[in-house]
Design goal:
This protein is an alpha/beta fold. It has 13 helices and 6 strands. The chain folds into 2 domains: 194 residues, von Willebrand factor, type A domain (Rossmann fold), CATH 3.40.50.410; 77 residues, no CATH class. A 6-stranded mixed β-sheet has the order 3-2-1-4-5-6, with helices on both faces.
Length: 309
């Protein structure tokens, strides 16, 4: 099994994990665990991320690019009765001047997907540009557009980040909260600025009305990455892992190239980000069966080879 290639490298992180505890200030992993434990038979976790991409949010996008693999690592580490639920991510951006006014300056970057390279590609492509930020409208859009699970045991969450009043725009966020609650979707809000200012601008109310949590972060602060003496060794294991992929199908070579590009994007943020991505790639949740023959055989059995030209 290919993911065992770098399993030995994970043990090297034990000491550094103690020295470098995970920063939970922007993303409520503990909150997610709380709801996961309360579910009788969780099968799936669905997370929609809604980013304000107006000019004032440059710092937030940079933070997200630096933290994405750490976040994914934590989410893919959640278990229930020894089982790891399937995890799907969706990504929207809103409040960008380049987007259509008739669409309330909202754009779906990706619907729910388990394709983590595709998610990373879309995230790293985000650019900021002025605009009007309509929180109620983008939450409503994500609820209506996405294929949310009908299983009440599944965990469904929205994380929306921004720094303008939450009650702006043509859609009343309180009515949207009622829709979210009826579908068992928790709306968590992240205000990029002073905590009390976010309260005044209804970001806490936007979370509490659906049973979600409210946070604030300073989007101008850069994420600090502390080097580990094991980083180079883990990244070397990642190179070994890459050599085990065998592309097939019409998009196989293209998808392999995207995989390498996202390795480069992670390394461009910091060595620690590249290490986090390497660890994600060693996990079951990093599945490329649609273009990698090794993953496909592991998932579907050797019979799938008979169907290949």
């Amino acid at each position: 099994m290919k993911r065992n290639i770098i399993t030995i490298a994970l043990a090297l992180l034990i000491n550094t994990a103690i020295a470098n505890p995970i920063d939970r200030s922007a993303y409520s992993i503990d909150y997610t665990k709380k709801h996961l434990v309360s579910a009788p038979v969780p099968v799936k976790i669905q997370i929609a991320i809604l980013f304000d991409t107006s000019n004032s949010m440059d710092g937030l996008i940079d933070q997200a690019k630096s933290r994405i693999w750490k976040i994914v690592n934590e989410m893919t580490g959640l278990t229930y009765n020894g089982q790891t639920p399937d995890i799907e991510f969706a990504l929207y951006d809103y409040g960008n001047q380049s987007l259509s006014r008739s669409a309330n300056f909202i754009r779906q970057q990706t619907p729910f997907t388990t394709d983590l390279d595709f998610l990373s590609q879309k995230l790293f492509a985000l650019r900021t540009n002025g605009g009007d930020e309509y929180c109620g409208a983008v939450i409503e859009r994500s609820i209506m557009d996405l294929g949310w699970s009908f299983n009440n045991n599944d965990l469904k969450m929205i994380y929306i980040a921004g720094n303008e009043p939450f009650n702006q725009g043509p859609v009343d966020y309180k009515s949207v909260c009622e829709i979210a609650t009826s579908k068992n979707i928790f709306v968590n809000t992240i205000y990029c600025g002073d905590y009390n200012q976010g309260v005044k601008e209804f970001w806490r109310d936007g979370a509490s009305c659906s049973g979600g949590d409210y946070f604030n972060i300073n989007s101008d602060n850069k994420v600090v990455h502390i080097p580990s003496p094991y980083d180079n060794e883990i990244r070397s294991y990642n190179d070994s892992l890459n050599s085990t992929y065998v592309s097939y199908g019409s998009k196989g070579i293209q998808r392999m190239q995207i995989q390498l590009e996202e390795d480069g994007n992670a390394a461009g943020q910091a060595g620690a980000v590249a290490v986090e991505r390497s660890i994600v790639k060693s996990k079951k949740s990093y599945n490329n069966s649609t273009w990698d023959m090794v993953d496909a055989v592991e998932e579907e059995g050797v019979e799938m080879l008979d169907e290949l030209k």
